[in-house]
Amino acid sequence: MRVTVLASGSGGNACVVEAGGTRVLVDAGLSAREIERRMQARGIAADSIAALFLTHEHNDHSSGAPVFVRRWDCPVYATGGTAGAIGLEGDLFTPYVRVYPARDGRVGNLGFRAFATPHDAAESVAYAFESDDARLVIASDLGRAEEPFVDFLRHATTLMVEMNHDEDMLRDGPYTWPLKKRISGGLGHLSNAQSAGAMFRAVGPRLRRVVATHLSRTNNTPEIVRAMLTRLVERSGWNVPFAKFGSIPRRASWIPRARPSPRRSAGSATARCATCAPARSSSSTSPGATRARPRPTRRRWPRSSWPIPSSRATT
């Protein structure tokens, strides 16, 4: 089994899972065009995707789904709550297969099983994919790691688990108090400590790789995650390599570009627009006096012009 991470984090999530000649896309949190571009850069043809699995309806997991599945004619696998939240129920033009938690399913040579997760979404799930003797678990966007979730992680050969925030950084960071409560609450996101604790309890002899995903840009750092996993490996005696994914390249379409600053006329270093320098009458200054150059006002750009989807969840 092979997994290719295309994006991870609050800016967008998407990865390709393949085994036995079957490829599926898990989440589509970037535009369809950006997903296709990243697939092409990794040698993956978009028309080879057999199905799109959605974990939940938040924009950073589903924004590119409608366009992608219509363009490449592949079915969407999602729970009933997720399908209803993004308008798949009753859509005659988008093939949709309902996923039921705790039931096994199969797409080609790839078996799968969904697990209901606690998150502030309609019906979010984590997925386990199986082929031959390999088992991959993809779990992010859940607020707590209870014993049933730990059982779901067991017997995996690869774990891709959310390590969203460092608890101290979140507490002392710039977010508002309501947002801090949402992220750290039981329907929010797993902290580094929560994820590490769940993996420590779930470790088994089959585990070969751990991938930390969905790192917050504001409330976490790759160095903190790496140190946490290093300590965990030393305490547990694992012989497990680990990796981190959480940075989205600036070419992702939602990232705001630098806002332009006002420019002076190329013909004169002192030229200003009429707004910044209103015209003066010739009698306003006595002959020979030095004219004070007016200070240009700073141009402010309305937030509505920034290319950031207003409904994008912040983590």
Tell me about this structure.
The protein has helices spanning 32-41, 59-62, 65-72, 80-85, 147-153, 167-172, 177-184, 192-202, 222-236; strands at 2-7, 14-19, 22-26, 49-53, 76-78, 96-98, 104-107, 110-116, 125-131, 134-139, 158-162, 209-213, 242-244. With 315 residues, it is α/β, with parallel strands linked by helices. It has a single domain, classed as Metallo-beta-lactamase, Chain A. α9 links the parallel β12 (209-213) and β13 (242-244). The two termini are 30 Å apart.
Order of helices and strands: EEEHEHHEHEEEEEHEHHHEHE
The DSSP helix count reads 9
CATH class equals Alpha Beta
Number of strands: 13
Portion in beta strands: 15-25%
Known CATH architecture? 4-Layer Sandwich
- The percent of residues in helical segments reads 10-25%
Tell me about the biggest sheet? 7 strands, mixed
Poorly predicted spans: 246-290, 296-315
**Neighbour order of strands in the largest sheet:** 7-8-9-10-11-12-13
Describe the global form.
Answer: globular
Distance from first to last alpha carbon: 30 Å
Estimated structural class: alpha/beta
Mean pLDDT: 81
- What is the count of structural domains? 1
Integer-rounded radius of gyration: 25 Å
Record the SSE blueprint.
Layout: E1 2-7, E2 14-19, E3 22-26, H1 32-41, E4 49-53, H2 59-62, H3 65-72, E5 76-78, H4 80-85, E6 96-98, E7 104-107, E8 110-116, E9 125-131, E10 134-139, H5 147-153, E11 158-162, H6 167-172, H7 177-184, H8 192-202, E12 209-213, H9 222-236, E13 242-244
Parallel strand pairs: 3-4, 4-5, 5-6, 10-11, 11-12, 12-13
Antiparallel strand pairs: 1-2, 2-3, 7-8, 8-9, 9-10
Helix pairs in contact: 5-8, 8-9
